[in-house]
Amino acid sequence: MEQIADVVGAMMRYLKGRSALVGLLFCFVSFLSMGQAAAEAIRLKDLGRFSGWRENALVGYGLVTGLAGTGDSLTNKATRQSISNMLSQFGLTLTPDQIASRNVAAVMVNANLSPFARVGDGLDITVTSIGDARSLVGGALMVTPLKGPDGKIYALAQGALSVGGYKYDAAGNVVQKNHPTVGSVPNGATVEVSLRSENLNRDGNLTFLLTSADYTTVSRVANAINANLCRGCAKAEDAASVEINIPNDQKHKLIDFMTRIENLQVEPDRRARVVVNERTGTIVAGGDVKIDKVAISQGDLRVTISTENTASQPILVSQTGEGVRTAIVSNTRVDVSELNESGFVAANNNTVADLVQSLTKIKTSTRDIISVLRAIKAAGALHAELIIQ
Questions:
Q1: Using CA atoms in the order 280, 286, 289, 291, what is the torsion angle rounded to 10 degrees?
Q2: How far is residue 96 CA from its own chain's centroid?
Q3: Is 139:66 a contact under the CB 8 Å cutoff?
Q4: Per its database record, what is this protein's job (predicted)?
């Protein structure tokens, strides 16, 4: 950009007095500036994380009590055995066969332990039924130890459940909203053992990890660190990691050094991707994803099969004789309709956005557009990664 400014300055001195040419040159420089501004840089902290920053999964088995007859049935032996074990801790001895309650449900409790969590901090927990309980509405979780993959207890969970749904049934009628067998407890777990995150590797260096691996982006990250913080201290190890050798004068103020790394501006490279969700009919693609010259013909054939059931009721059954009864008669009809014209789209050096807009104009459904995109990818005309969800 500095070279452009020097050239423009020289041309301005040469074209002094030629207002028309100066105005044209000004528009050209403005266009270049707009092109430079269009490439937006992003902070490193939004592109990845330092090695050692990770959440740890915790899980536990517990009981939810206080349900209004919507808990596990009597055929669930695990729940009755758990109730028996819990009552034995309070000096009450009952065999599982002596317990007959539908106000209790066996559940699994999940939580994520932050690497910076300290003893006494609260964690949000998710409670899910593992039995045949109909609903957890109104229930409270008993004290449940939460363990890590190493089998150690890191937190204790308990509290009243918040369930975003309900289920009521009576006389064969069922009314249900969302999933009443899943609940949550905000700050329902208390950390008992804290973790200490290790940001430095065995060599005493920092490692920055990209969320999306890309050789171009990781090279730009290493170059930005070397150019702004410490010359030659950053090296790209692979497509997702940059190893940073901490300068000697920064080792005693590591937090400040990491803060400056996080706030460096880098322009990430972007892969061309088209994401398609067939279940919901959603298409997400970059507006500049290119497609080759292609011709698309899309027709519409509808087949409708309808069945009408009627009851044939005989008249004067008593006079007709024995064995005469009501009969069900089914009338089936098949209708086939085809549009007289089919949609035709010719794409010449267009983008996916242009193609979708053209298909929408001829009233092509979203699921048909998904089929068209898959066919274009199979034909080798779509220069992007097609992700089907």
A1: 30
A2: 42
A3: yes
A4: Assembles around the rod to form the L-ring and probably protects the motor/basal body from shearing forces during rotation.
Q: Other CB atoms closer than 10 Å to residue 277's CB: what's the count?
A: 14
* Tokens read off for 216: 């171009």
Total number of domains constituting the chain: 3
Give the residue numbers spanning the domain of 139.
56-191
Strand, coil or helix: 260 = helix
CB 14, CB 6: distance < 8 Å: no
Burial of residue 70 (CB within 10 Å: 0-12, 13-18, 19+) is buried
Place of tokens 């209004």: 68
What are the C-alpha distances in Å from 90 to residues 6, 87, 93, 100, 275? 86, 5, 9, 19, 56
Is 320 within the bounds of a domain?
A: no
- Tens place of pLDDT for every residue, the chain, 389 residues? 444 445 445 444 544 444 433 343 333 333 333 333 344 788 888 888 888 788 889 999 999 999 988 899 988 999 999 999 999 999 888 898 888 889 999 999 999 998 888 899 999 999 999 999 989 998 999 999 999 989 999 999 999 998 887 666 666 666 767 778 999 999 999 999 887 777 787 778 899 999 888 899 999 999 999 999 888 899 999 989 999 998 888 888 888 998 999 999 998 887 788 888 777 777 787 666 777 776 666 555 454 545 566 766 666 555 555 666 677 666 656 565 555 555 555 555 577 777 777 777 777 777 777 888 888 888 777 878 788 77
Task: Check if the beta carbon of residue 150 is closer than 8 Å to that of residue 59.
Answer: no
- φ, ψ (nearest 5 deg) of residue 2: -65, -40
The domain boundary residue, chosen from 266, 284, 307: 266
How many Cβ atoms sit within 10 Å of the Cβ of residue 193? 13
Q: Looking at the domain assignment, is residue 299 inside a domain? A: yes
Q: Is residue 5 part of a domain?
A: no
Distance CA 251, CA 261 (A): 14
